[in-house]
Sequence to fold (358 residues):
Amino acid sequence: MKEVVSGLSKKIRRVPDFPKKGIIFWDMTTLFKDSQGLKNTVDAFVEYYKDKNIDCIASIESRGFIIGSVLAYLLGKGFILIRKKGKLPYDTIEESYVKEYGADTIEMHKDGIEKGDKVLIIDDLLATGDTASAACRLVERLGGEIVGCAFIVELIELAGRKKLRDYSVFSLIQCKEDE
Amino acid sequence: MKEVVSGLSKKIRRVPDFPKKGIIFWDMTTLFKDSQGLKNTVDAFVEYYKDKNIDCIASIESRGFIIGSVLAYLLGKGFILIRKKGKLPYDTIEESYVKEYGADTIEMHKDGIEKGDKVLIIDDLLATGDTASAACRLVERLGGEIVGCAFIVELIELAGRKKLRDYSVFSLIQCKEDE
Fold:
């Protein structure tokens, strides 16, 4: 296991067989309810991205919102919502993909970003990379440029980084699912 | 209309007939993507709650997460997730309620808070108050004490404040649905 913040992974609970048998779910609620855990997580992202050229932060519903919005606030950037299909009220574009637990579709508002915006994508977990990859496609279809993809946890055996090979990927914890 | 932060309501888009005909949806995405709008919103909550005795911030999925997590970070508190049924992986308690657009059930982890914790509930919109009221019941069933309920927008005609009469309610914008 590699950690940018020492001891961070211990604050994340592993729940076996959720949402289905055989999956070990990385439960971030124990990290977020720990004020120091929340602070260390966000501060590590701020440290890494504070000098990068970023226009806005886009996060994927809904755990991604928790980290992404704090980062947007601290970096003084706008925060963009990427949501499951049917949740955003205005004109949207969508991308469908197959993920670890089944098919899914995510959406962004068409006016979520402007052409040329430099966008950082952030989510809690990088598994297969299918969700993040779909998020990148949404941003690019609207003329945005992906500055990077950031995650708290990257499960290295699922090779999500390979699927995101065109982008700069930064994770606070790199490890195996059962580590 | 009453606003704690002047001009804030203009940054929120109103989308007619979403999620169903006759509803005017207050679309916070335009507020959050505006870095100054996000900052002004959060800062107004920080100003109001910074000297209050609070142990943790609990927010309701998923737009509530966006404001609640920033507030938790800035006040140095833990952040607790209240989610739709089936999303939380560990042992939960649940509350069901009827809201503006139909029935719903929300959950918290049983170990989300400790007995005696002073909890601030925050969400983007106070409409009928049924969701926030269910959130308060979850916290209280776990032995927590509600410090207050905070919202960006309060739709006064729907009388949510009356449903939350046992609690201290603070909203940045008080107005009618079509204002």
